[in-house]
Amino acid sequence: MLEKNSKKIIEKSKSSGWILEPDAKALMKLQGLDIPDFILTNSFEAAGQFLKKSESGVVAKAVSKKIIHKTEHKAVVTGIVSADHLKKEMVRLQKLAGCENILVEQMVQGIEVIIGAKNDFQFGPVIVFGIGGTSVEIYNDTAVRMAPLKPAEVLSMVESLKAKKIISGYRGMAGVNMEILTNLMVNFSLFVMELENDIESVDLNPVICTRDRCVIADARIMLKC
Amino acid sequence: MAVIGVSTSQDNHPANVIYNKNHLRYPVKTFPVNPKGGILNREKLYPGVEDIQEDIDVAVIAVRAEYVPGVVEQCIQKGVGGAVIISGGFAESGNLSLQQRVVDIAKEASFPFVGPNCLGIYAPDYMDTFFLPGERIIRPDKGNVGFVSQSGGVLVDQMVKFAGQGIGISLAVSIGNKACIRETDMLDWLDQDLETKVIAFYIEGFEKGEGRQFIEKVEQCSKPVIVLKAGKSKKGIEAVSSHTASLAGDYRVFSEIMKQHCVAEADNEYELTSFCEALSCYPKGINGNIGIITLSGGHGVIAADACELHGIPIPGIDPATIGIIKEKLSSGIRNIVSLANPLDLTGSSTDSDIVTTARHLSRDGNIDCIMALLIPYSPGISTDIGAKLSQVARNEGKPMIAYVPNEDKYKIIIEGFELNNIPVASSVEGAVLMAKALMRCRPC
Predict the structure, then answer these.
(1) Do B266 and B303 belong together in one domain?
(2) Looking at residues B176-203, what average pLDDT do you find?
(3) Is A124 at the interface with chain B, CB within 8 A?
(4) Quick check: is B131 in a domain?
(5) B268: closest CA of chain A, how far (Å)
(6) ipTM, 2 decimals?
(7) Which of A1, B230, B381, B410 is the most exposed place for a label (fewest CB within 10 A)?
(8) What is the largest CA-CA distance in chain A?
(9) Can you give the CATH number for the domain in which B67 is found?
């Protein structure tokens, strides 16, 4: 069953038709999925403190109801390691349309995948999996299955990709931890089944996978009108 | 059977065609109905279905669309078992409310019907509601493939292809606008039907959530299910909406989900034909791993290329197997054959070489299925080769697929296979498609 808090998040986002990244990630966390450590702030000082604690740098993003696709609006900055750089980018992001505050989060590096869901007219909730990032539409190397997923189906989705070697690891590069990825996808598919009547589509893109984590670095949930 | 709408003036009226063929050529007792009564070919026309003394199992309704609701009411009053509504002029031409009226009337009385806007039911040896004159269409023999099609034209065309390949039909139903009986109902029915071994569908689109229902039923179904989907391209989707008023969904989702749930999706009508034949012989499916026996190097290469294209593995043969085969081949060919996979026995081989090779290749643990490319042109091959290889397949318990050119001359070889439940393709590509069907239809 969904927690009360999850229901609240969905209800309050209904008027805008979609759930902003911080709320979408909060939903994922309530479902037991892994998200990066973050703070939501407009203060340079708080952001600077957070940067100091983050070993591999931070990502800064504008949180705005007016920006659905952040990349197109240059509303994401990755790989920030210095306080000056962070401050400069925060100033710029704050000027973007409708920017409420800045999401500063721990930077995670690994293999980027997309895990998505769509409420299909004929089949109901379906799960999409593929190599992630901003070029996902160009390669369209994705697999589609009907939710809820069984663990064996996650494996068959990975197997069916052209880029399956990227997932399994090649030329000395570590692959994805399949157990964690499988748990994430099965769990996510159950979440989508529960919200069948509320959601239109979900993009977890990218989900960053390493040998020991699968972290949801960005999440967007489109609600049914 | 009552045929409602028989005309006294038009011999080619659909109702007349249906009445004549069932009345004259099928065991079903058929009654013609026309509100004006009268006489047709010295037979009495009944003014209404209620005027027929005997009980009616099925009414074929071929009256103008606006009269259909009234006729359905009369059928319900009379206690008719169900109907096939041939008439067009409903949802497919924008007349949704009229169709809904028929559905409401039927639903209230739990009165099942097929259609409207369809050809209806062809049940070999029982009945045939297709309004196409018997002499114009090619009907497959009675067999074990159940075929359900949204389009009547595709159904009739597919029947020609089935007949050409010697595939028999247990039941063929054109469901048209599918206002009452839909794919999911037919899936339930054909799953229970003892004469059906394989269930095939031509689908244009499902209603909201119906795809999921279909999949849930497929998971319960004990028989292989094959689909041919139309409305894949943007252009195709336009054609579908104007054709049978159906909303074609996102094809990618459809195709991937069919694969996920072990439904064999045929890319075109040729694949559908091959899939039906292969899966009616081997409902269980295979992992892949084809062992190819050929009598011509070229055919072997063509088959190997096609296998690679369709992702069908052709593994190496165990050296022990090769040793045994080499030892048992006739001395004349021992040194000219190519003992690899494809295994080329050359045009100089004889029946006994082919039989020995098939037997030992079947026993190889690397091989799941034998593909025998039999070009019967050389003098060493007898007309018994089909029956002989069938024996091998039966004794060794491994699936076998054959290619024999589809010519009258070689019918005896083809029948030697087919009567023994070994599928025969009329092209190398066809044989590879059969292997593809067996591979697709296996649980994940």
Answers:
(1) no
(2) 96
(3) yes
(4) no
(5) 22
(6) 0.85
(7) A1
(8) 52
(9) 3.40.50.720
